[in-house]
Amino acid sequence: MDHPNPQPRRRDPRAQSPAESSSDELAAGSEHDEAERRRASWTLQKAFTPQRPKKTSRLYSESESPDELAVDADEYWRSSRMRNHHRSPSPIRDDNSQGGSDDLAEDDVAGSDENQAGDADDWSDRSATPVAPVPPKPEHLNYKEKFVMRGHLRGVSAVQFSPDCSMIASAGADAAVRVWDTASGRLIHVFEGHLAGISTLAWAPDGVWIATGSDDKTIRFWNVNTLKAHTKVFDGHQNYVYQMAFAPKGNILVSGSYDEAVFMWDVRRAQVMRSLPAHSDPVSGIDVVHDGSLIASCALDGLIRIWDTHSGQCLRTLVMEDNPPATCVKFSPNGKYVLAWTLDGCIRMWNYVQSRVLKTFQGHVNNKYSLSGCFGTYGAENVLYNQPLCFAVSGSEDGSILFWDIVSKEILQRLDGHSGSVLCVHTGTLKGKRMVVSCGIDKTVRLWEEVDENDPGSDDDAFSDSATPTPESHSKKSSPAHDADGDDAMTDASAVPSTAATPAEDVTMT
Amino acid sequence: MNLSLVDPFVLAQEYPDTLTEKLSSGHATCLSFNHKGDYLASGRVDGTVVIFDIETNGVARKLQGHTRQIQSLSWSRDGRYLLTSSQDWKCILWDLKDGSRVRTVRFEAPVYIAELHPFNHLLFVASLFEDQPVLVDVSSTKPIKRILPSAPLRPQAPDGEELDPAVAAKQAAQDAKHSTCVTIFTAFGNHIIAGTSKGWINIIETQTCTTIHSMRLCNGVVILLRLASNGRDLLVNSSDRVIRTVLMPDLSQLGIDLEPSAIKLHVEHKFQDVVNRLSWNHVTFSSTGEFVTATTFMNPDIYVWERRHGSLVKILEGPREELGVVEWHPSRPMVVACGLETGCIYTWSIVSPQKWSALAPDFGEVEENVEYMEAEDEFDVHPAEQVHQRRLDQEDEEPDAMTLDSAEGDADGVEPFNLPVLLDIEDSDSGDDVVAVGPGTMRRRTPGTSKEGANGDSEKPAANGASKGTTRSRRR
């Protein structure tokens, strides 16, 4: 198991404060006793073992600023896991001790007691830390194919969930926009009107309009409620429209084009309100931050620029030394970072304020197409992690979809199914289910849904694209998906911690 | 999100300096920003209310329901409801979600100013032309109007002493001469501040509709009262050509720390033009309350005073016409004012120059020459693989890409309301002359402008525009 370096130097300060840690040891011990008592009498509520929400909630608030304590806690987890690995060869016991014992507690109280003993061991072992345990991060995701949506006549270049995720819009080289129902995978409508292939689409935040940008140099709006096209065509670009994004209020649409300009459109009037003198090569990526104050653009000249929406001024330019063409840029959900795809096969996460690369994600193939991806969250929803668990997801030119943890940079899952390059991936949540939709040059749109990892009924052939699986048939399939991924020993270890989340969800549902 | 990137010198600038935009849709006579500052409502001579999107400078919605000039506009806290008052003796409460009318309230006289309660959009005060001001509860479809007193609070006669009937009659006659010209709510809405035609300021309890404090501020008519965003500073424009800033006690402490008898209003500054004896059309505080801004009678300038020393810091120039209503953006250094003659809305803000170093990442802007020190290993050649790997190894931070900065969440706890974006806004209203001038903007005058223009002309814009000031002076 290769973990990132345990960083012993950061552990030092903790060792220097024995007084503090000893007092915490007492506190932790007493709380643990209480936990045990309650657990014996009230085994069902295991997701809410008393010590966890209390302490972690404190942690959570602290983690808003990169607090030393919070960082230490997380690192401690990793390092303690490392230590345990060296000591005990059984990864399962180890993971149980880290809060994953809930599963057993439900079935067999006696068994859980045994685990508690092990737990207690670890408690004393761990007592040097001044913070309570945080549930371990799942090391794998378990998305499975739900629907394959066919109908496009040529490659599909853009796909996006509607703001409420009830629908999916996809568009591509056949110049048609297809709207699908997320729940059933059925085609709702086909919008036709563009004279050339569509490169980009964006749902307006109100969920009524879809904007599409095409190689016919226009942007068109389609109304999902009336199933009619907007009477006004957004005409102004001198060349192919490459990428677009809506401002969060939906009053401004930002588009980048092969004519090297970034246009800000007044959506109400269908007119350009501002043109940003942006780049010296086709503008391949556009995004608007969640509060609408910043626009990010990137171009094939390798420059990523951050713009002030209000003044239209460039505030920052980011570039790697050897200028690999940048093909897509996305703000993180909190707007602090940008994710940029470049044709050197890397996705980089930048801290744009400091003009610094924070993370480089690799493992996919990207040297030809403008791939585009997304941020997403994972981990159990009712568990407070040290900080929200976040992944970056992207397609690859070898037909797979990759998920990276943004902290560890490790690949959380690799989804196979597309038979050609996966051009666009988007994440969404419908009725509490996390989903990913992807499209590619194999003319299909695929919907993937996160499923419980220990769900006893999933099959290897979930990945065959022979027929569109119905939800019923899908749920009957068995065997964990990771086997299909060809992942190794990590799978076993990781399968357990995420079960900590699974039964908890069951409890909340019943 | 952009604060960390914007030039701090630009952020430090507190008041605008240049005329940047000109918005136009009909003949505007009054203006009001919503609390968030992304929309500007303007009331027109023809009774139409136009809501501009400040981000695009385009029209976001038009509200048609009044038949005469709009007198005042008041936004609800969440920005969803807008109260308009008009010379057609009506107040309308609009729901901006769909542009429908929530309530229409008729009065027996034209309305001067109507203002919504800061926390309850179904309660408002209105001051009426030659009539008693009213507190109107529109929570049910039948509005409940409660008349507010205009007469100042007189000191209680000593116990057991009968008031001389002659004196009482005289006082009653005097009280009858008072009429209230402007009423506003305090920050929490527990009290109403009223200004009268005799220059008195009355503080009225909202709950009981009784005057708890009165003070004579000046000899002229109180034309306008404005409260700063902190709720403690009051700005008074009166017909004696003096603008006063008044420090108010914390009225929320009434009954706890403060007795009604102990209320004292303290005049902080008097702003006036001593030489020309200019009179002021309209006044406003800046977003922070640090500056006072006023438009002047028969003069195209906007005066900006700062309050710490009471000195004039800026005269905003630009248009060649007299300006009426002036408003300050609730968070940005941005001032809007509408011209009396054309009814255009002018915008002053800060134009910051492009920092060229932002365009070239490996350049920096330095104030003076700097001796360059070459690093020891600057020109060492390392294998690209090695450099790449080392860089990857150094990426050991734990970024949090999800958690929002807590400061960004709205502090008021108000559910944010987003005005729907209407793509067919221009189709709904045929004759409109939306023209905006600005950097990089391409606006064309839509055909059918003449109809709108004719309407405006027939109503004699100059007379209408000045009416707010002139009707009041006529009443004296």
UniProtKB/TrEMBL annotation, chain A:
Family label: Belongs to the WD repeat MDV1/CAF4 family.
Highest classification ranks of the organism: Eukaryota, Fungi, Dikarya, Ascomycota, Pezizomycotina
Membrane topology label: Peripheral membrane protein
Gene3D superfamilies listed in its UniProt record: YVTN repeat-like/Quinoprotein amine dehydrogenase
Function: Involved in mitochondrial fission. Acts as an adapter protein required to form mitochondrial fission complexes. Formation of these complexes is required to promote constriction and fission of the mitochondrial compartment at a late step in mitochondrial division.
Region feature Disordered, mapped onto this chain: 1-139, 452-510
Hydrolase in keyword set: no
Composition bias type Basic and acidic residues, residue spans: 1-14, 30-39
Cellular compartments per GO CC: mitochondrial outer membrane; Set1C/COMPASS complex
Biased amino acid composition, Low complexity: 493-504
WD repeats: 149-190, 191-232, 234-275, 276-317, 319-360, 393-414, 415-449
Record-annotated WDR5-like beta-propeller domain positions: 149-449
Protein name: Mitochondrial division protein 1
UniProt feature, compositional bias: Acidic residues: 64-74, 452-463
Superkingdom of origin organism: Eukaryota
Subcellular location: Mitochondrion outer membrane
Keywords (A to Z) from UniProt: Repeat, WD repeat
Species per Swiss-Prot/TrEMBL record: Penicillium roqueforti (strain FM164)
Pfam families: Beta-prop_WDR5 (PF25175)
Single Gene Ontology MF annotation: histone binding
Main location per the UniProt record: mitochondrion
Transmembrane segments: none
Automatic annotation (TrEMBL), chain B:
GO (cellular component) term, any one: Set1C/COMPASS complex
Localization of this protein: Nucleus
InterPro entries the record matches: RBBP5/Swd1, WD40/YVTN_repeat-like_dom_sf, WD40_repeat_CS, WD40_repeat_dom_sf, WD40_rpt
Keyword Transport appears in the UniProt entry: no
Disordered: region residues: 387-476
WD repeats: 63-104
Main location: nucleus
SMART domains per record: WD40 (SM00320)
Gene3D superfamilies found in the cross-reference section: YVTN repeat-like/Quinoprotein amine dehydrogenase
Annotated keywords: Nucleus, Repeat, WD repeat
Pfam families per the UniProt record, alphabetical: WD40
Top-level lineage group: Eukaryota
UniProt name for this protein: Set1 complex component swd1
Species whose genome carries this gene: Penicillium roqueforti (strain FM164)
Gene it is expressed from: swd1
